[in-house]
Specification:
Elements lengths: L1 H37 L3 H11 L18 E6 L5 E10 L6 H5 L3 E3 L2 E11 L9 H7 L1
Antiparallel strand pairs: 1-2, 2-4, 3-4
Length: 138
């Protein structure tokens, strides 16, 4: 009975680890997009994202490669109101779950590649006027 329970526990742990890593990556990307929309300095935004990604444990089922493995790509649209942040990293799935984990992402030499992409707007489309007109109203 114990081996069956341990196998079930292992089957449940890998998706939880991948979900946790993706959740932290998505939060870091979302916060970085807001910082990019307001500050515009890509170096500051990249270091901000890497600082947020330190919350991901450096265990192989969560993330491998340390801070050098994270890929942070930043882009702004022409009107500078829409910002897109893409964060990618690698993890190494548990041996029994390699086939299942392959369905969750792409595999390369470093392990399973996990990527999130977030697109944020600084101002919603329905909000009219410019900053100066809002300041005059108040």
């Amino acid at each position: 009975m114990l081996p069956v329970l341990m196998a079930l526990f292992a089957l449940l742990m890998q998706p939880v680890c991948v979900f946790y890593t993706r959740m932290l990556m998505r939060h870091a990307a979302s916060e970085t997009a807001r910082v990019l929309a307001t500050s515009g300095d890509e170096g500051v935004c990249r270091s901000f994202a890497l600082r947020r990604l330190r919350a991901v444990p450096e265990a192989s089922v969560f993330h491998v490669g340390g801070s050098d493995d994270w890929e942070v790509n930043l882009s702004r649209s022409g009107d500078a109101q829409t910002c897109e942040v893409t964060i990618a990293g690698h993890l190494r799935p548990m041996p029994l779950l390699g086939v299942v984990a392959d369905a969750m992402g792409t595999r390369d030499a470093q392990g399973l590649r996990v990527e999130v992409r977030v697109c944020e707007r600084l101002r919603p489309q329905w909000l009219g006027g410019e900053y100066e007109s809002w300041m005059q109203a108040w």
